[in-house]
Amino acid sequence: MLRKHRQIPRRVLAGATGALAALVAVTLTGCGAGGGTTASGDDSITVLVEAGGHGELQPIADQFEKDTGTSVTFVELPYDGLYNRLNSEFSSGALSFDVAALDSIWLPTFAEALTPLDDMMTDDVQSDLFPALVTEAQVDGSFVGMPAWTNSEILYYRTDLFEDPAQQAAFKAEYGYDLVPPTTWEQYADIAAFFTQDTDGDGQVDVFGTDVKGAVETEWLATLSQTGETEMVVGDDGAVSLGDAESLEALDFYTSLLPYAPSGAAQLDWAGSQNLFNQGQLAMMRFWAHAYKQIPADSAVAGNVGVTTMIGGPGGVAGVPGAWYLSVPSGTSKQEKALEFVQYAYDHNELSVDTDLGLASRISVLEQYQDEPGYENYGPLIDTLNAASTIPRPANPQWQEIVDSALIPMIQKAVVPGADNQKLLDEAKAQVESIIG
Q: Is the pLDDT of residue 26 over 70?
């Protein structure tokens, strides 16, 4: 019997839809967000999906119906509403859907209620997926999700600033090396300091070198992996690594950028960061790859945005995978059709490329488009997700509680001037240990 899962409050959406969905109005389709029922008949299935990610699946669903005659009805919900719907229906056993798109961090929570996809996860399939995605998809020895799309933070920078001869000359005179997109922590800090400038001479900073996000955890987790830390906060054995040398190094670097970032770091989230960059107030930004397609045509930086691989620390380049998975509940009576749709979505993953998010999960699909105009973000995404230090978030059912109750509060306190980072890490460790029991 599936255990009762707690409800998870969320301030922002995670993974691929993280920054976008904060700006997207929820559009209800199909059965709607109320007490929907599974579409009737053998020639139809119902797919439960978060609103910001529906667009990734619609082209696949349209082609699936043309090719198989099976119609797909989507039920869209906001992020927290989707989790609560899954929680409620899995716990009660009264299912209204046949397939669900799940955030990667939910797979361990709902794994025992999902149909294993081991037969679908062939060696050929696994070889076309990033290593971290293969790891995330497997819970307790069984694959319970097929990646539908994936994401990671990459580095955004303003080409108008980086390619300005006057800026290039001034930077080289001050730092002794050429002004190019940074690849290391040291270069990132130098360039962030340099581009924190008063451009109109009024004594006020007009452009900041970077931002520091205090209201989200993923960017600090990427920084943690960049130290070479091999277990993200909680190891497979339940040991908590917070407070060790690597976590302190990561938090120290993260907060060392505060002088080159706008004020209000403790409340800055994905949407706020994206707005700052699009308004021309940041020279650089570490952000999810999908945002490259979201830059408004009338933005202050439109036409002047470059993207490259995420920066690296002592352990090299690392990002945090932000993947969503298609899963089939074991309780649906339409197992065959549901599994057919999941396989079809993998086989036709390229149909997700020309969408609002423009994301895919297969390496071959991303590589196919990476040299096409408008897809300049694909190469950096591939390189970041393939980096040896890029690891998935822990397969722990309490992970979201760890994030909400320990990690984000720790980061928000750390971005306050005068914070004792070691003490904050030690306190967060004790809280995580309490959560996981």
A: no
* Cα distance between residue 275 and residue 291, in whole Å: 11
Amino acid at 188: Y
d(CA 321, CA 312): 15
Q: Token pair for residue 75? A: 């039920």
The pLDDT of residue 41: 57
Tokens of 139: 């819970």
Which DSSP category does 405 fall into? I
Contact 250, 196 (CB under 8 A): no
- Span 367-396, average pLDDT: 96
Which of 394, 385, 380 lies closest to 362, judged by CA? 385
Please check the confidence at residue 407 and state whether its pLDDT lies above 70: yes
Instruction: Categorize the per-residue pLDDT at 200 as very low, low, confident or very high, splitting at 50, 70 and 90.
Output: confident
Contact at 8 Å (CB) between 262 and 277? no
Q: Angle formed by the axes of helices 335-347 and 54-68, to 10°?
A: 110
Taking alpha carbons only, the member of 332, 333, 370, 336 closest to residue 353 is 370
Residue 352 CB neighbour total at 10 angstroms: 24
The amino acid present at 13, given as its one-letter code, is L
Residue 93, judged by CB atoms within 10 A of its CB (0-12, 13-18, 19+), counts as exposed
What are the C-alpha distances in Å from 18 to residues 51, 326, 408? 11, 18, 15
pLDDT tens string 63-107: 999 999 999 999 999 998 999 999 999 999 999 999 999 999 999
250 closest CA partner among 429, 412, 411: 411
Q: Where are the beta strands (DSSP E) in 122-206?
A: 138-139, 142-143, 146-149, 153-158
Distance CA 174, CA 184 (A): 18
Whole-structure pTM over 0.85, yes or no?
Answer: yes
Please compute the mean of the pLDDT values over residues 379-385 and round it to a whole number: 98
Q: What is the mean pLDDT of residues 191-213?
A: 91
Report CA-CA distances (Å) from 201 to 164, 206, 207, 256: 18, 9, 12, 26
Say which residue the tokens 């300091």 belong to.
193
Between the alpha carbon of residue 231 and those of residues 184, 244, 307, 326, 426, the distances in Å are 21, 11, 28, 26, 17
Of 385, 323, 388, the C-alpha closest to 154 is 385
Asked if 218 and 322 count as a contact pair (C-beta separation under 8 A), the reply is yes
Going by C-alpha positions, the residue among 393, 433, 403, 401 that lies closest to residue 107 is 393
Whose CA is closest to 132, among 362, 357, 346, 391? 391
| Burial grade of 374 (CB within 10 A; 0-12, 13-18, 19 or more) | exposed
